[in-house]
Amino acid sequence: MADPSTPALLLDNVVKSYGSVRAIDGVSLAAKPGELVALLGPNGAGKTTLFQLLSGLFVADSGRIEVMGHDMTRDAVPALARLGIVFQQPTLDLELTVSANLMFHAGLHGIPRAVAQARIDKELARLGLAERAHDKTAQLSGGQRRRVELARALLHEPRLLLMDEPTVGLDPQSRSDLLALILTMRTERSVAVLWATHLCDEVGDADRVIVMHRGKVLTDVVALPEGFAGQREVDREVAKQSRIVGCDAAHRQGDAPVGRCQHRERLPHLEARRRHARIGRGDHFVVDKARG
Ligand code: ATP
Question: For residue 281, what are the domain limits?
Fold first, then answer.
């Protein structure tokens, strides 16, 4: 049984270069079980490279990556076994049925056929696709295919789900449906989710928002429940653990979805540089992790 304090994902000072380009430049971050962490950044920030390192496609030049306590380099098999991925580009075989796509994936993970069939039935029912199991994947809409990819990523019961811009090409309804599914799933199964996006409106329900810029973590933002004025203990805890930076600097970088603190007068115990932001329905605080 895994230690409940073990992070689902841990990155410690990870570096990856392509020639002279430092695509990942000393990134450290962590995701707890059941936490939805949004990874926000403009094109070229390094999100895809980070996902390639996390999914074992590339090896980091230096630093440490752990999935549920398993080192991605020394202990790759158990690390990868605890990982589910929804790639940015669709990867289903459109000529196969939905069920055959899922069974193929289950086979790659060594899941016995009968167990796999039971899980496929369960996941498709949960995702509202039970009646499409025997349809050719090509007959599904973009949003339905994305849900099949989610079902596939969950078949081997991962503890960490990587979603690389999973809503690209989806209409607004399909996007919000997919996000709603993720929110329910991460609570029900205590699966940590790393959700990469460049869309600020997708990070409103995240527990934390990490903003990447030019290969570095620019900000690591902690979300607090709505009506945070009554949440001073959490608030103090965040302040104690972190150095708070102004959002103006982040704005100048052009990435951080933060605004000026509207409630500062209600939080006299916080230092003057404190900034608060409202992203979606959550109250967020800008935390300089690099110097924290
Ligand atoms: P996008 O949202 O456009 O996919 P991203 O945040 O995923 O961007 P990356 O694709 O990881 O960013 O790119 C980070 C940096 O690394 C960029 O400067 C990019 O040009 C560079 N890079 C990425 N892949 C390679 C490669 N195979 N060879 C050389 N440079 C690369």
Answer: 1-82+159-292
- What is the C-alpha separation between 138 and 156, in angstroms, rounded? 24
Q: Which residues form ligand 1's pocket by a CB distance below 6 Å?
A: 18, 21, 23, 41, 43-49, 198
Rounded to whole angstroms, how far apart are CA atoms 206 and 38?
A: 6
Question: Which ligand 1 atom sits closest to the C-alpha of 164?
Answer: 7
Ligand 1 center to 277 CA (angstroms): 29
Residues 224 and 207 in one domain: yes
What is the distance between the alpha carbons of residues 247 and 277, in angstroms, rounded to a whole number?
9
Do 170 and 125 fall within a single domain?
A: no
**Could you tell me the pLDDT band of residue 211, with boundaries at 50, 70 and 90?**
confident
pLDDT for residue 157 is more than 60 = yes
Residue with the smallest CA separation from ligand 1 atom 19 is 44
Token duo for residue 148: 């099949």
Overall number of domains in the chain: 2
Give the model confidence (pLDDT) of 72-113 as tens digits. Answer: 999 999 999 999 999 888 889 999 999 999 999 999 888 999
Tell me, yes or no, whether 176 and 47 share the same domain: yes
Tell me what percent of the residues of the chain surpass a pLDDT of 70: 73
Going from the Cα of 45 to the center of ligand 1, the distance in angstroms, rounded, reads 7
Q: Are residues 185 and 283 in the same domain?
A: yes
- Mean pLDDT over 111-129 rounds to 93
Closest by alpha carbon to 141, among 165, 122, 169, 121?
169
